[in-house]
Write a structure and sequence with these properties.
Elements: H1 10-23, H2 26-31, E1 40-42, E2 48-50, H3 52-63, E3 70-79, E4 83-96, E5 99-114, E6 117-127, H4 135-138
């Protein structure tokens, strides 16, 4: 088992978070999370997951198929001494019958400063668009990430 990196800043932890997602590396992804039963995650079109085991199982399933083509924009940061809240837009490339398209999601990532460096405790993302999620996403499309 490889040793988890110690991130000196929440920004460094976030960079590693999206890098792990891009590479499809579930082990690296889970090394970023606080080892806490109160961590939570909501993927676009997915249920609320609470606890490190539920989060791990979800990322193993999602990233097991490979990396996710995702970019971030419009990052807003609110940070204190031990907690940071990042609110941003994720641009996810999704392939389908009509070809590839970009789906935008509003995401909130919350990081906690621990003795092991900055760790993620919450990732919440939902698809956005004019007036909310596109009708096809409300009809049960796949979880994006």
């Amino acid at each position: 088992m490889r040793r988890a990196a110690v991130f000196a800043t929440a920004e460094a932890a976030e960079e590693a978070f999206y890098d792990a997602m891009q590479r499809g590396d579930a082990i690296a992804m889970m090394a970023l999370w606080a080892d806490d039963e109160d961590v939570a995650c909501v993927h676009p079109n997915g249920p609320r997951l609470v606890g490190i085991r539920a989060v791990r199982e979800a990322y193993e399933g999602i990233l097991g198929a490979g990396g996710i083509d995702i970019r971030t924009t419009d990052v807003r940061i609110h940070q204190g001494a031990v907690m940071a809240v990042h609110h941003l837009i994720e641009q996810v490339v999704v392939s389908g019958r009509g070809g590839a398209r970009i789906v935008e999601c509003a995401a909130t990532n919350v990081y906690l400063k621990t003795v092991e460096g900055w760790r993620i405790v919450l990732h919440h993302a939902c698809e956005i668009g004019e007036g909310g999620p596109a009708p096809e996403s409300r009809a049960g499309s796949a979880v994006l990430h």
